[in-house]
């Protein structure tokens, strides 16, 4: 037989957790056609001797809604082996949307997802109004990897209710009927489900709570019923912690999903200290699943927080009036000013006095959980390296230590603010949760938070830290790959990918596991209108393949753009 591509003599990691074995993977017309020994000619051959051959990775939680329109590359995700990305998470996105509400959604995405307004104004053509029209616009764009989309709750609410939706007024029976109808329409057009958020730190750029913040049970239920009417899908949800408890909000969504007959995946964070509220959430999941529900907690495999620096959205001094006097200067000039003793003294003698639109800005002074992030990108740092501990060792205040570290590397230094998932200064709890069947990896957030995080590199971290370098609680390579491939694919209802077997989509990674290395994030200016974002690269990806075409070789993108919009849930090969 003649093949389009054969990956020969690699160590095949099947995506299901089976023992790795040496063999070939042959591809024809975007599909895996032989696994084991491939006999025949091939247009392209990759010699994978000594290398891992894995399925392409699936990221359940991204925000490439804009980038999938203005760019043909969905990096950083595609630079870290991701071949399918789900966008439209957190109940925010760009459709449905009337012309009169463009500014509302720009304000929403700028605040919740840290996408500069000018980037969206310059990068989005707004050639759509309805969600099906948005899907058509995404479908018309060639790109490196596949995307799939949720119907986002806040745009839907604004589209149906107008200003009443923005003001978070209760939906009327007529509003609910219209939301259900549009949810059915979106699902029939290919939405994988719908997303919503009730997180209090999800604010618009102007500081208002998002439209979906206090949506009632009946609203979640009717949208869910619309998804079911259209053929079914997944509910993605970000809960808040009213009165310090998960139960009220999660139970409401779990009940609505069960009544609508839909599965749920929700964001689960682990507090660094205090009462372990995550245990209550897991108890709720166990109870719901024991009664026939299909609930997964979605966790991130390293600390959740902020990357802060002088050239980023936040740093410890952004709320200081004295710092704001120079904040508008170019970085080089600002660093020169900050190195002057009189400027240093003035800023260090100041205190936060500016009220931010988003309360997350207050978290940039969490000294016990803030660490310099060096070239080796250590995301499980020793407590002795925190800003608080370093300050004590130097005999200075934490504010002074942070000030000095921000000036390292001529002001390009960055700090990791590990605000969650770092219980007892360790990732042990995260590792234990990752091993549960009711937990799935996600939260890469690619395409968003351009100036405050760069978490879409997490697959590389799983393969390096969790499956190679960590001294205790290490995962086998087969276990780690399973968590990056078949588990999220199954959660999303994309059963045509996520494993290496005959008939499955030929999305593959060829990886030099021993050479795999994650670099620290760097600032680039390649968004529309010259917008700033964080990017992060890695060594060790010999090839990433989408639908049988090589989209990158040795970390360098090729000209291939085989990625497509995935419309709706996909069955497993028969």
Automatic annotation (TrEMBL):
InterPro entries with a match to the protein in the record: Amidohydro_3, Metal-dep_hydrolase_composite, Metal_Hydrolase, Metallo-dep_Hydrolases_sf
Pfam families linked: Amidohydro_3 (PF07969)
Domain Amidohydrolase: 44-551
GO-annotated molecular function: hydrolase activity, acting on carbon-nitrogen (but not peptide) bonds, in cyclic amides
Record protein name field: Amidohydrolase
Coiled-coil ranges from the UniProt annotation: none
Cellular component, GO, one term: cytosol
SUPFAM superfamilies assigned to the protein according to its UniProt record, in alphabetical order: Composite domain of metallo-dependent hydrolases, Metallo-dependent hydrolases
Keywords in alphabetical order: Hydrolase
